[in-house]
Amino acid sequence: MTFSIVARCAETGQLGIAISSSSIAVGARCPWLRPGVGAVSTQNITLPALGPDVLDLLEQGLAPGAAIDTALTRNGYSQYRQLTAIDHQGRTVHFSGSETLGTHNALSGEQCVAAGNMLADRTVIDAMVQAFEQGEGQLADRLLAAMHAAIAAGGEAGPVHSAALVVVGELTWPIINLRVDWADENPIGELQKLWVAYRPQVQDYIDRALAPDRSPGYGVAGDDR
């Protein structure tokens, strides 16, 4: 049903999540991030409330493992949940309940943690971690490299139809928040196209938000800057 990778860039401190699923609009429910705090993916039979709950606990100073344990105890039905988290220090944790669907796996790596359920093979997750650790470029590039590696290793047992990429930095809002809510085929490829188009514009949108009087124009009709 879902596979994801949650990670931190050791150079910039950025936090990010890339995720894909056979379900519609995975980006609307599963990835949760808070600048300077951490990132959480809540998946399998998803309870979206677990994302902000874990982030609140991380912000209060709990370690990732304690934060997930506390959130699961509060909300119940832990046997149906699969969660991963990373904090602003790069500490990771993963949890897969006894009712996690199908073939599933989770693995922590260097500044990252990946997990999935209803997988074609458990090695899909190993491939994701390896691709991220060996990847180059921005955090978003490395996250997408992990997603492509997942597909190459077999991906889900069935086709995936949605995907998302979210990255936070020092600002209070995500600097990257791209979603493919439904594609008949290859949503990760469609997400890659979105990132290629958005990558050269990331800083422009930050500049427009923070300094609109000095920011570049949009290059569209009606914008005469």
Automatic annotation (TrEMBL):
Q: Check the record and name the Gene3D superfamilies matching this protein.
A: Glutamine Phosphoribosylpyrophosphate, subunit 1, domain 1
Q: What is this protein called?
A: DUF1028 domain-containing protein
Which source organism?
A: Pseudomonas helleri
